């Protein structure tokens, strides 16, 4: 059995979960309380971030490393021969340039859904330590501008998806799975956000979930 430690909104954990589903590997999910990471620290030997994957005595951190690990566990065609560079490059793009905009769009909604005040205020505090005091409030105020940035970033992807079912090549790859994880984070924050960027993103996410 594989155990995935996650925050339920983490794009990096969500994409790992999509990969586990596509590989049809049995797993259990353990949601880590944002302000209580004792079990996670014990399992990982001191790391406090998610996702963390535990399997057969191995502890794998970082979503890209987890992807590489899981892809070796079963025969699959999620990185098609001859498409390795394109698939991994798109995955890396979603984890960097795209994530940088989407997490700003999603963060206010994620914070609002945290029931424990300690979790919510710690979440905001951590964001403010990196991006400045009041950043989450500013992102909520500037949501339209951030959505416009996301539209620009995703325009080539949407153009591709208007002509094909998948982002890279003619079948599902890790590129699609990575994109789905980031879109699921935005949907978690507020179901109205994805259609605001493009209704086609919601259709893409639904199609992948239905596989």
From TrEMBL:
<dbReference type="InterPro" id="IPR036282">
    <property type="entry name" value="Glutathione-S-Trfase_C_sf"/>
</dbReference>
<feature type="domain" description="GST N-terminal">
    <location>
        <begin position="1"/>
        <end position="78"/>
    </location>
</feature>
<dbReference type="Pfam" id="PF13417">
    <property type="entry name" value="GST_N_3"/>
</dbReference>
<dbReference type="InterPro" id="IPR004045">
    <property type="entry name" value="Glutathione_S-Trfase_N"/>
</dbReference>
<protein>
    <submittedName>
        <fullName>Glutathione S-transferase</fullName>
    </submittedName>
</protein>
<dbReference type="InterPro" id="IPR036249">
    <property type="entry name" value="Thioredoxin-like_sf"/>
</dbReference>
<dbReference type="InterPro" id="IPR004046">
    <property type="entry name" value="GST_C"/>
</dbReference>
<dbReference type="Pfam" id="PF00043">
    <property type="entry name" value="GST_C"/>
</dbReference>
């Amino acid at each position: 059995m594989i155990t995935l430690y996650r925050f339920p909104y983490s794009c990096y954990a969500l994409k790992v979960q999509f990969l586990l589903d596509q590989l049809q590997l049995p797993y259990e999910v353990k949601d880590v309380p944002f302000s209580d990471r004792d079990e996670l620290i014990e399992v990982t030997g001191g790391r406090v971030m998610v996702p963390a994957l535990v399997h057969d005595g191995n502890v794998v951190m970082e979503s890209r490393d987890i992807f590489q690990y899981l892809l070796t566990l079963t025969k699959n065609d999620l990185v098609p021969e001859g498409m390795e560079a394109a698939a991994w490059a798109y995955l890396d793009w979603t984890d960097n340039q795209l994530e940088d905009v989407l997490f700003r769009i999603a963060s206010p909604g994620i914070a609002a859904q945290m029931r424990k005040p300690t979790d919510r205020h710690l979440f905001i505090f951590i964001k403010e330590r990196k991006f400045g005091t009041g950043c989450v409030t500013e992102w909520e105020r500037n949501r339209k501008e951030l959505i416009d940035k996301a539209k620009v970033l995703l325009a080539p992807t949407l153009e591709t998806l208007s002509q094909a079912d998948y982002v890279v090549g003619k079948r599902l790859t890790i590129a699609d799975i990575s994109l789905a994880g980031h879109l699921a984070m935005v949907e978690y924050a507020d179901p109205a956000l994805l259609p605001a960027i493009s209704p086609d993103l919601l259709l893409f996410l639904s199609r992948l979930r239905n596989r």
